[in-house]
């Protein structure tokens, strides 16, 4: 492009402008040769590049161009490692350039409202702080290479069932605090070149046409000036979409909509100025993309090693009784490896995020290689490929396990269960696997279970019978190696659950309303998603959010919490008290002691992954801001941090809080805007208003028998009464013919005068 977007905008005809607002085909934008405007090439995805063989095909069920397959969202979400996400982002940016990919359609950052969400494997977490921090790091990595990212699916797309025709009905506070919060963090911290809107409606309007979402919040409030593009076919009314700020329709060419845009401008139904805004943003994207340097990596760069490292950071050691892990050759000289996933690992989910991997590490091969000559390794399939229960396979497994020192079982959700386009039916292991684990555990006390799934699993029917569980998620092409390293202790596990694992599915807060009915899905659990709900209900999960064991131990001491102006500084000492080098994920939660509005017991506000040698200590410092103490106050339509006491909780999981501090926070209050129904409590909380009110009451008390004094007793009883009603109750003989409304109005004006002086 040799002219600036502004210059080009002046030279484009109306028809050309309209045509630029949709793609050329499945994966490209249109170019305009006469003005030297090149097309942009974009491809999925979230945990690797899914570049199709042709730009005319969707390529969901075919093999595509091989690319590195990294751990899926929920897996890498469990790494809690922003540096790793950045590194993977950089690698994806580099790989994109060698594949002529200019814009990568990821990451997916929707919240996991229900463990049944069909695309949960693509998403990082049930928590917006964790998701937002990881997503921003990933995007900064990709974009540092001159390749664009597309954060998706904006917003409220939390399940697959009838998503194209279902409205996610989410109240404003929940929307802001839970479902938009990660997007907001990402927009502010990484400025993604594009945002992809979702398929669903949000509170009655398609997100691709939603003025409140795209215009009021994304553009006006968050200041986003990049391109908003549609999810594939998510456009319904193109003109409404443009008016709301949906710039680019995908896929194209959508000639019918180009025609509709031209007609709408000619008929005065869409202003050309509005169209120009979208075209200008698209041209800026083209400009950014063409600034992209030519391929600058060696064709054989070692991304596979990075895929292994990412998998190793993602795997979560859920249980390790009697330190049965890591395996030691002196006590494990014969190992029974049981389960088909040991030879055919599930490395990812299905749908648009599915990558054709460059290679795949096979767990059984890796275990054999690491066991070397020290241990014999025998394998049996354990369960059939279909869902049937095969007693012969179970018997064979029992014999193998009985004759070994240790058994390692590979189980998980079947391949078909986790895919875009449909939700999961349940989160239990298939019956044939549950029976297998129970039978093997009955004969082999050292029974180690390695689970694979992209969403939480219910483990109650068997978990109490086995000493060790490793959750390997769907951790990409390096997963086989990473599991073997954890088993033998070459990797000290450091993953922490990015979502709660419930005891049973019905414990989940969304359980009453998982599916939409007649086009509406009410998010009635509100703010209480994931651990926010389990905390509030005092319901013990199987494994809580943030849980994950290590082969070493950590101690938290010397906590200090101080407020300096608008910043709250939290510092403490973390020490590795065990015998191995290891990484701890330190989690900082905030608890609001005083807020009158309902708030979750605690919310994650910061975290860090810290690596320490045995005996090593490090001072960890977090700096929190006003926003970290705030809730979205729908009365004022803004974030509010109440003045009062807060607790800072630091821990190794959401249920393993190691050290707690308390502080009184005061970020300064904005003045209350008084109105007729302002409550007595509000009047007395504002010094100017209280003084005016007291003056008025003194006057009133001279004329009434039941006098009003603003003492503790009176306020304690009447605080939730609107002041206007207090006058109605106590001041009638004084007000005479003046109405309570007039008295209040006069008071409000007096407060204004005092404030202005
Ligand atoms: C998915 C998007 C994806 C797009 C292109 C859609 O079905 O929802 O996440 O980027 O297809 O493959």
TrEMBL record:
Keywords: Carbohydrate metabolism, Glycosidase, Hydrolase. The keyword Hydrolase applies. It comes from the Bacteria. Its EC number is 3.2.1.21. The keyword Hydrolase applies. Residues 584-654 form the Fibronectin type III-like domain. One of its GO terms (molecular function) is beta-glucosidase activity. Belongs to the glycosyl hydrolase 3 family. This is Thermostable beta-glucosidase B. It comes from Paenibacillus auburnensis. The lineage of its organism: Bacteria, Bacillati, Bacillota, Bacilli, Bacillales.
């Amino acid at each position: 492009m040799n002219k600036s977007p502004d210059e080009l905008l002046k030279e484009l005809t109306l028809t050309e402008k309209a045509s630029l607002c949709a793609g050329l085909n499945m994966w490209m934008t249109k170019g305009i040769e006469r003005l030297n405007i090149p097309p942009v090439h974009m491809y999925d995805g979230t945990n690797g590049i899914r570049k199709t063989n042709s730009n005319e095909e969707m390529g969901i069920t075919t093999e595509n161009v091989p690319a590195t397959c990294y751990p899926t969202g929920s897996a890498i979400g469990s790494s809690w490692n922003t540096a790793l996400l950045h590194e993977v982002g950089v690698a994806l940016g580099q790989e994109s350039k060698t594949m002529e990919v200019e814009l990568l359609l990821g990451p997916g950052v929707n919240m996991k409202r229900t463990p049944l969400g069909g695309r949960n494997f693509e998403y990082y977490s049930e928590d917006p702080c964790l998701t937002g921090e990881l997503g921003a790091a990933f995007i900064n990595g990709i974009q540092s290479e001159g390749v664009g990212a597309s954060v998706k699916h904006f917003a409220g797309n939390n399940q697959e069932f009838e998503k194209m025709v279902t409205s996610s009905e989410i109240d404003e506070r929940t929307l802001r605090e839970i479902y938009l919060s990660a997007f907001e963090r990402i927009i502010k911290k990484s400025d993604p070149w594009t945002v992809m809107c979702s398929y669903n409606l949000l509170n009655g309007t398609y997100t691709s046409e939603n003025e409140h979402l795209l215009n009021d919040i994304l553009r006006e409030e968050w200041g986003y000036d990049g391109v908003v593009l549609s999810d594939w076919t998510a456009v319904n009314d193109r003109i409404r979409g443009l008016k709301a700020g949906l710039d680019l329709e995908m896929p194209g060419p959508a000639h019918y909509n180009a025609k509709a845009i031209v007609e709408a401008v000619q008929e005065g139904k869409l202003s050309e100025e509005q169209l120009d805004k979208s075209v200008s943003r698209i041209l800026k994207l083209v400009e950014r993309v063409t600034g992209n340097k030519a391929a600058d990596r060696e064709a054989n760069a070692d991304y596979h090693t990075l895929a292994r490292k990412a998998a190793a950071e993602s795997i979560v050691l859920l249980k390790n009784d009697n330190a049965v892990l890591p395996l030691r050759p002196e006590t494990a000289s014969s190992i029974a490896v049981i389960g088909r996933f040991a030879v055919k690992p599930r490395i990812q989910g299905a749908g648009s995020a599915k990558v054709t991997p460059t290679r795949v590490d096979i767990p059984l091969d890796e275990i054999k290689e690491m066991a070397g000559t020290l241990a014999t390794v025998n394998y049996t399939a354990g369960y059939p490929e279909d869902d049937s229960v095969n007693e012969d396979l179970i018997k064979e497994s029992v014999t193998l396990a009985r004759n070994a020192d240790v058994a390692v079982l590979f189980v998980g959700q079947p391949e078909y269960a986790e895919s875009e386009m449909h939700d999961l039916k349940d989160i239990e292991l298939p019956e044939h696997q549950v029976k297998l684990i129970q039978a093997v555990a009955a004969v082999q006390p050292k029974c180690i279970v390695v689970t694979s799934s992209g969403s939480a699993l219910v483990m109650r029917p068997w978990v109490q019978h086995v000493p060790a569980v490793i959750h390997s998620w769907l951790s990409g092409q390096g997963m086989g190696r990473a599991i073997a390293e954890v088993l033998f202790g070459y990797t000290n596990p450091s993953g922490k659950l990015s979502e709660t694992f419930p005891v049973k599915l019905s414990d989940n807060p969304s359980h009453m309303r998982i599916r939409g009915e007649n086009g509406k899905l009410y998010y009635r659990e509100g703010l209480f998603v994931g651990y926010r709900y389990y905390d509030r209900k005092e319901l013990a999960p199987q494994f809580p959010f943030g849980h994950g064991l290590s082969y070493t131990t950590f101690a938290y001491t010397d906590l200090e919490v101080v407020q300096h102006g608008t910043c709250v500084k939290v510092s403490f000492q973390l020490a590795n008290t065990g015998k191995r080098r290891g990484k701890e994920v330190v989690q900082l939660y905030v608890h609001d002691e005083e807020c009158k509005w309902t708030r979750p017991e605690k919310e994650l506000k910061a975290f860090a992954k810290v690596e320490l040698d045995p005996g090593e200590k490090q001072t960890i410092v977090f700096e929190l801001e006003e926003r970290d103490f705030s809730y979205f106050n729908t009365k004022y339509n803004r974030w509010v941090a109440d003045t009062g006491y807060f607790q800072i909780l630091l821990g190794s999981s959401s249920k393993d809080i190691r050290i707690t501090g308390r502080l009184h926070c005061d970020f300064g209050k904005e003045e209350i805007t008084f109105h007729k129904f302002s409550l007595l409590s509000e009047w007395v909380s504002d010094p100017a208003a209280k003084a005016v009110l007291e003056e008025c009451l003194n006057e009133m008390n001279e004329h009434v028998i039941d006098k009003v004094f603003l003492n503790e007793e009176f306020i304690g009883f009447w605080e939730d009464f609107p002041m206007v009603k207090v006058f109605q109750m106590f001041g009638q003989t004084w007000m005479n013919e003046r109405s309570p409304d007039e008295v209040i109005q006069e008071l409000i004006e007096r407060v204004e005068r005092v404030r202005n002086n």
